[in-house]
Design brief:
By secondary structure, the protein is α/β, with parallel strands linked by helices. The chain contains eleven helices and seven strands. Helix 6 links the parallel strand 2 and strand 3. It starts with 7 loop residues before the first helix and ends with a strand.
Length: 282
Amino acid sequence: MEANRPSLTAHGAALHRVAHQIVDTPPVFTDPLALRIVGPEAAGELRAGRERHTQAAASRMRALLAVRSRYTEDCFAEAFERGVRQYVVLGAGLDTFAYRTDRPGLRIFEVDHPATQGWKRERLASAGIPIPEALTYAPVDFEGETLHDGLKRAGLDFDKPAFFAWLGVVPYLSREAIDTTLSFVARDMRRESEILFDYAEPMENRNALQSKALAALAKRVAEIGEPLKSFFKPDELQRDLRALGFSFVEDADTAALNTRYFLKRTDGLALGGAAHIMRARV
């Protein structure tokens, strides 16, 4: 990602979420603000079916982006019942959770690169979506400061547990950056803090069709300056998370997510490939 340019992959993810609202019935993940936040021009193209995100070839990516948001918010609902009242969105992009939720006593922090965050706030203003009192923006340029410092400045209460949603980010980061964030949650946050993130398996763990799909994605995102950098083997990642100090680790893979969210659909929408959403709790 270029220093002064908002993330193009964040915009693409938002378009997939909008397309899911339009094309897939019923939606796995309902987002009534999705159409508004991408703007009328993009929304019009999507409604007319002229945008590639609405095409059948994009159905598996729509399914992935929809289910990772749904699963994360379902997991947070469980955390909220346990008493967690801080929700941190790492790499928030055009995520709309903060503008849809009405849970009492909840504090929400959106962490993102300043350029992407500024772009999002312009989109919110254009769409007439108000910024809730419960939300705090935490612009962090990781070239010059740490996540700990950025959240401390934003007012996160480190004496209370927090839930971290880290979607669509990990594959684009270096191993060092990923380890730094996971170590921060494991060592600096209170018990009952939790982090959810999606990740990609390496080529050698995939069949020929899955490898071809990953290669196509890697080529596409590299061309816009946001290349894939990190891949994980599930068993090794779970081992590493436990070594960092996480007491509970759970990997929701393609089979588990399809069983939970896509059974009995008549439109054939489902995950393919090697999807993974990791859940780790201190």
